[in-house]
Amino acid sequence: MKLKYIFSLLIATVALMTSCAEEETVTLLDEIQVSTSYVSLPVDGGSAKITVTAKDSWTAEKVTTDKNKVEWLTISTTTGNAGESELTFSAPSAIDGRMAEVLIHSGGKTQRINIIQGVIKVSEAKVSEVIAGPDGKTFRVTGVCTSIENTVYGNWYLTDATGSLYIYGTLDEKGNEKNFLSHGLEVGDEITVEGPKITYGSTIELKNVTVININKSLVKVDSVENEMLPIEGGEFTAYLTCKGQGVSVEIPEDAKSWLSISSIQSAGTNAVVKFKAAANTGGDRGTTLTFHTTDGSKDYTTQASLSQKGAIVEVSVADFIAAAVGDTQYRLTGVITSIANGTYGNLYVRDFSGEVYVYGIKDFKDKGLKEGDIITIVGKRAEYKGTPQVGGAVLESKISVTAATIADVLTKPDSSQDYYMVSGEITEIKDPMYGNLYLKDGDSTIYLYGCYSGYGASGDFKKNFLATKGIKVGDTLTVIATKSSYKGVAQLANGIYFSHVSAQ
Questions:
Q1: Number of separate domains in the chain
Q2: How far from each other are the two terminal CA atoms of the chain, in whole angstroms?
Q3: What is the spatial distance between Cα 383 and Cα 322, in angstroms, rounded to a whole number?
Q4: Does pTM surpass 0.90?
Q5: d(CA 331, CA 310)
Q6: In the listed set 308, 324, 354, which residue is the last one of a domain according to the structure?
Q7: What CA–CA distance (Å, rounded) separates 277 from 64?
Q8: In this predicted model, which residue has the larger pLDDT, 439 or 94?
Q9: What confidence tens digit (pLDDT) does each residue in 60-113 have?
C-alpha cells in the first residue's frame, strides 16, 4: 500500500470524527454503547457486525447529503430494543475506497459509527471536478488563495481557472488543527491541498485539508495608504514587493466609473501603485483590486481592498427592504413595535411603508429605549436566510413616547414635541379617509385628529388606513400622538397606528 494512501485514509478518518453535524458527539455513553465505532469492509464487498448495547430503544440512520446518498451501504436494521443487539453493515464491491457515517440514537444521545470500505484514494482534480464530484471522496487540487476568512482553523478560498472552492479547515504539518498560521499562507500564493469533499448547506467544501505544496506568489502587497477614502474622494496607494516581470492592475468593472490608476512606479523589487477615487454622491462603496505579475510562464496575483465613505441615504422601510445587500449606509425612522433581545437591541421598527428587523443597536442597554419609542437609526442593508434586516445599526436620535390614559392626556399642555401612547375604544368615526375618530377610556373621551399607517405618512399614505386595516367602531385602538386643541377643545393630533384589538 502506498504511503500517500495510508495518510489519506487517516485524514478521511479525522474528517469523519470532526463532522459539522450539530448533535452531541460521544464515543462512550451510559445510554448506548457499541463494540466498535470503526467498521472496515473489504473492497471486494462483504459484511461486518457490531454489537449494540442500549438501555432504551434505539434507531440508526446513515448520514447523507444531496450528492452522496450512501446507497452502497446496507444496514441490517434501523431500529432496536433495550438490551444487546447485533447490527450488520454490508456493501458490494467498490472500485475506489469510500466511507460513510452511521448515527445510532438512544435516550437522547448519539453514537457515531464510521464505515470505511477499501482504501481512500486521492483524485487529482480541478475545482470544477471537485464541485461535480461526490461527497466523501478525497481530492487533490491546486489553485490560488484568493481570500482568507479565518486564520485559526484555516478557512479560505482556493481558485483555479475553472472555479472557486471553500476550504473549511487546514491542518498543519503534523496533522493538527488550529495552527493555520504555521503555513505562512497569503492571498496570491499558489497552493496544492488534498482532503475530503463535503457539502454543508449549499456550500461545497474540502474539509480539514492537508497542505501538499505552497508556491509563494511573486507579488505581494506590503502596505496601503488611505484604505478608507473620504466622501470627497482622494488617493489610494498600494506598496508592493514584486519579483516578477512588472506589475499590472485589474480594477473590477463596477468600480471603473469612480476609481482609476494615476501612476505605477517600480524600482528593483519594489512597486508603488496609486489610484484616484472620485467624490462619492451615493452610499458607502468599496472594491478589491488585483495585482498581477508573471515569471514568463505563470501568472501570480495578490489583492488589496479599499472603501470609500458615502452619503447616508434616507429611505423608508419599504425602500430599505428593496435595496441590495451591501455597505451603503441608510437612515430609517420608525416606531419600535417589539424588542426581541433587550441586551443587544434586536428589535422591529415600523414606519408608514412597512416593518423591518434590526439586528442589534450599538450600546442598546445604555439608550433607555422601549416599545413605542420613535427612533432614527443608521445601518446597512443585510439579511439572514433571505430575510431583510438592518445590520450594524447606530442610534442617531430618539423620541421617547410616554404611555398615558386619556384622562392623563387631557391634563397635559399642548405640545408638538411630546408624544403619548394612548388606548381607547372607538366610539365614532367622523372621517374614515383620514381616520378622524373618538376614543373612550372609562369616563374620558378624546378626539383623534388623524390615524395613519405609521410614522412619516404623507399624501395618499394618510388615506383610508382604517378600511385597509379593518378597524371599526367598537375596536380598541392604540395610537401614538401629540396633544393639541381645536377651538379650545383638547384632541390628539397626527396619530400613528401602533395596534388594535377587534371587538368581539
A1: 5
A2: 80
A3: 12
A4: no
A5: 12
A6: 308
A7: 50
A8: 439
A9: 999 887 667 888 999 999 999 999 999 999 999 987 778 888 999 998 899 999
